[in-house]
Design goal:
single chain, 257 residues, alpha/beta, Rossmann fold, 2 domains, 7 strands, globular, binds nicotinamide-adenine-dinucleotide
């Protein structure tokens, strides 16, 4: 099945993993819909530059995915959705007794409920087109837990569960649903944490990365957004047609521990 001319919607794709996945898709000839909650000149320039670099159609559609109706309307405004990548996500770290209720609600809404709404809107389009791929960017925290990340771990375990349900509901159709579970990925967000970690622990860059940030990642290497893009593309390939309802870890051995 050629991917050229198919349309991929990647939520939360003006930075980090979403942008990396979108870039891999555009390079493979897919038309891409980029999204975030902002609506800046930079957002639209990203789309224009990607379209120019790869000769595909790229649109930026603003939608705040903390709102379920906005999530559904993102898919409706895109008008087509052969590949849906639910990637948008936020994080907050605090012990449960101090965890702000508003942060809990926002994390569940953006990291979990938005994927329910986009998937509900996209499945009829995939059925109409006779082919589809749902790819949820979960996390190693969809399979294991860490302290102080109650909402994030709950949302990521939730999206792994929802992935299985979508797979079962589409099992007899040429549609698959899977979750990618990254460990620590080098994104601008993670790069930004390095100086603070160095300062907090009085460590040089290399030690802070190895002993603090990558403490649970046995490979002692960050995954890259290109590797995530390659994994998402693999899930779109014919070779992956019978892979559905499962998780693929890209975590340098984290979940093998
Ligand atoms: P990031 O902050 O660079 O990207 C998050 C994206 O979500 C951004 O484009 C942001 O604008 C968007 N977003 C946030 N709130 C939104 C909202 N209300 N509506 C629409 N878009 C919104 O972070 P990232 O590291 O690229 O994370 C992407 C996904 O990968 C997240 O789901 C995250 O949980 C997951 N993940 C990241 C890592 C990592 O190490 N970076 C590891 C495992 C899983």
């Amino acid at each position: 099945m050629s991917l050229e001319g198919k349309t991929a919607i990647v939520t939360g794709s003006n930075s980090g993993i979403g942008l990396g996945v979108a870039q891999s898709f555009a390079a493979a000839g897919l038309d891409v819909v980029l999204n975030s909650y902002t609506d800046t000149d930079e957002d639209h320039a990203l789309a224009a530059d990607m379209a120019k670099a790869h000769g595909v159609n790229v649109r930026y559609i603003q939608a705040d995915l903390s709102d379920g109706d906005a999530a559904r309307s993102l898919v409706e405004r895109a008008g087509a959705c052969d590949v849906l990548v639910n990637n948008a996500g936020i994080q907050h770290v605090a012990p449960i007794q101090d965890f702000p209720a508003a942060k809990w609600d926002a994390i569940i809404a953006i990291n979990l409920s938005s994927a329910f709404h986009t998937t509900a809107a996209a499945l009829p389009m995939m059925r109409e087109a006779g082919w589809g791929r749902v790819i949820n960017i979960a996390s190693a925290h969809g399979l294991t837990a860490s302290p102080y990340k109650s909402a994030y771990v709950a949302a990521k375990h939730g999206i792994v569960g929802m992935t299985k349900v979508v797979a079962l509901e589409t099992a007899e159709e040429p549609i698959t649903a899977n979750a990618i579970c990254p460990g620590y990925v080098m994104t601008p967000l993670v790069e930004g944490q390095i100086p603070d970690t160095m300062k907090e622990y009085g460590m040089d860059r290399e030690t802070a990365i190895r002993d603090v940030l990558l403490a649970r990642q046995p490979s002692k290497e960050f995954a890259t957004v290109e590797q995530l893009g390659g994994t998402a593309l693999f899930l779109c390939s014919d070779a992956a047609a019978q892979i559905t309802g499962t998780t693929i870890s890209v975590d340098g051995g984290w979940t093998a521990l």
